[in-house]
Amino acid sequence: MEEYDPFDPGPPMTEERWEILLRLSPAEKGEVCCQLYEIARTTLEASIRYRHPEYTEEQVTLARNRCLWRDDELFRQVYPNAPLLPV
Fold first, then answer.
1. CA–CA gap between residue 46 and residue 40 (Å, rounded)
2. All residues at 6 or more sequence positions from 32 whose CB lies less than 8 Å from its CB, including other chains
3. What is the value of pTM for the model shown?
4. CB 59: neighbour CB atoms within 10 A?
5. Is 19 within the bounds of a domain?
6. Contact status, residue 69 vs residue 82, Cβ threshold 8 Å
7. Mind listing the pLDDT tens digit for each residue in 39-70?
8. How confident is the model at residue 8, as a pLDDT?
9. Predicted local confidence at residue 21, as pLDDT
Protein backbone atom coordinates (compact mmCIF):
# COMPACT_ATOMS: atom_id res chain seq x y z
CA MET A 1 0.00 0.00 0.00
CA GLU A 2 1.35 3.41 -0.98
CA GLU A 3 2.01 5.84 1.88
CA TYR A 4 -0.26 8.90 1.98
CA ASP A 5 1.56 12.19 1.45
CA PRO A 6 -0.51 15.15 2.72
CA PHE A 7 1.64 17.57 0.70
CA ASP A 8 1.09 15.80 -2.65
CA PRO A 9 -1.31 17.95 -4.68
CA GLY A 10 -2.51 14.90 -6.56
CA PRO A 11 -2.69 14.39 -10.29
CA PRO A 12 -2.49 17.49 -12.47
CA MET A 13 -5.71 18.97 -13.74
CA THR A 14 -6.90 17.03 -16.74
CA GLU A 15 -7.95 18.79 -19.90
CA GLU A 16 -11.52 17.62 -19.30
CA ARG A 17 -11.61 19.29 -15.87
CA TRP A 18 -10.08 22.44 -17.32
CA GLU A 19 -12.79 22.55 -20.01
CA ILE A 20 -15.49 22.20 -17.34
CA LEU A 21 -14.04 25.15 -15.41
CA LEU A 22 -13.88 27.27 -18.55
CA ARG A 23 -17.61 26.71 -19.17
CA LEU A 24 -18.63 27.98 -15.72
CA SER A 25 -20.27 31.37 -15.40
CA PRO A 26 -18.37 34.08 -13.51
CA ALA A 27 -20.66 33.52 -10.50
CA GLU A 28 -19.98 29.77 -10.58
CA LYS A 29 -16.23 30.39 -10.84
CA GLY A 30 -16.46 32.69 -7.85
CA GLU A 31 -18.29 30.00 -5.89
CA VAL A 32 -15.61 27.43 -6.78
CA CYS A 33 -12.91 29.88 -5.61
CA CYS A 34 -14.72 30.41 -2.31
CA GLN A 35 -15.06 26.66 -1.79
CA LEU A 36 -11.36 26.09 -2.55
CA TYR A 37 -10.36 28.88 -0.17
CA GLU A 38 -12.50 27.35 2.59
CA ILE A 39 -10.90 23.94 2.02
CA ALA A 40 -7.41 25.46 2.13
CA ARG A 41 -8.21 27.48 5.27
CA THR A 42 -9.63 24.56 7.23
CA THR A 43 -6.82 22.25 6.10
CA LEU A 44 -4.22 24.80 7.19
CA GLU A 45 -5.93 25.27 10.56
CA ALA A 46 -6.03 21.51 11.11
CA SER A 47 -2.35 21.29 10.26
CA ILE A 48 -1.49 24.07 12.71
CA ARG A 49 -3.56 22.41 15.46
CA TYR A 50 -1.80 19.09 14.79
CA ARG A 51 1.66 20.65 15.06
CA HIS A 52 0.76 22.97 17.94
CA PRO A 53 -1.94 21.36 20.11
CA GLU A 54 -1.20 23.92 22.81
CA TYR A 55 -2.42 26.84 20.64
CA THR A 56 -5.68 28.53 21.54
CA GLU A 57 -8.22 29.26 18.78
CA GLU A 58 -6.94 32.84 18.64
CA GLN A 59 -3.37 31.60 18.21
CA VAL A 60 -4.46 29.21 15.45
CA THR A 61 -6.11 32.15 13.66
CA LEU A 62 -3.00 34.29 14.04
CA ALA A 63 -0.72 31.51 12.77
CA ARG A 64 -3.09 30.83 9.87
CA ASN A 65 -3.20 34.47 8.81
CA ARG A 66 0.57 34.80 9.07
CA CYS A 67 0.98 31.74 6.86
CA LEU A 68 -1.64 32.77 4.28
CA TRP A 69 -0.39 36.34 3.99
CA ARG A 70 3.28 35.25 3.79
CA ASP A 71 4.30 38.78 4.75
CA ASP A 72 5.33 39.54 8.33
CA GLU A 73 5.26 43.29 7.65
CA LEU A 74 1.59 43.10 6.66
CA PHE A 75 0.89 40.81 9.61
CA ARG A 76 2.47 43.40 11.94
CA GLN A 77 0.34 46.19 10.45
CA VAL A 78 -2.85 44.23 11.09
CA TYR A 79 -1.79 42.68 14.42
CA PRO A 80 0.83 45.07 15.88
CA ASN A 81 0.90 43.40 19.31
CA ALA A 82 0.52 39.76 18.29
CA PRO A 83 3.44 37.36 18.58
CA LEU A 84 4.93 35.89 15.40
CA LEU A 85 3.90 32.33 16.21
CA PRO A 86 5.48 29.39 14.42
CA VAL A 87 3.18 27.88 11.83
1. 10
2. 21, 24
3. 0.70
4. 16
5. no
6. no
7. 999 999 999 999 999 999 999 999 999 988 88
8. 65
9. 86
Interior angle at CA 25, CA 24 and CA 31, nearest 5? 85
Q: What's the structural domain count of the chain?
A: 1
Model confidence pLDDT, tens digit, residues 11-48: 766 788 788 889 999 999 999 999 999 999 999 999 99
| Cβ count near 48 (within 10 Å) | 22
| Enclosing domain of residue 32 | 26-78
- Residue 65 within a domain: yes
10 in any annotated domain? no
Given CA atoms 86, 75, 55, 41 in this order, what sign does their dihedral have?
Answer: negative
Report which residue type is found at 80: P
Q: Is residue 41 part of a domain?
A: yes
Q: Which residues of 62-85 are buried (b: 16+ CB within 10 A; e: fewer)?
A: bbbbbbeeeeeeebeeeeeebeee
What confidence score (pLDDT) does residue 54 get? 97
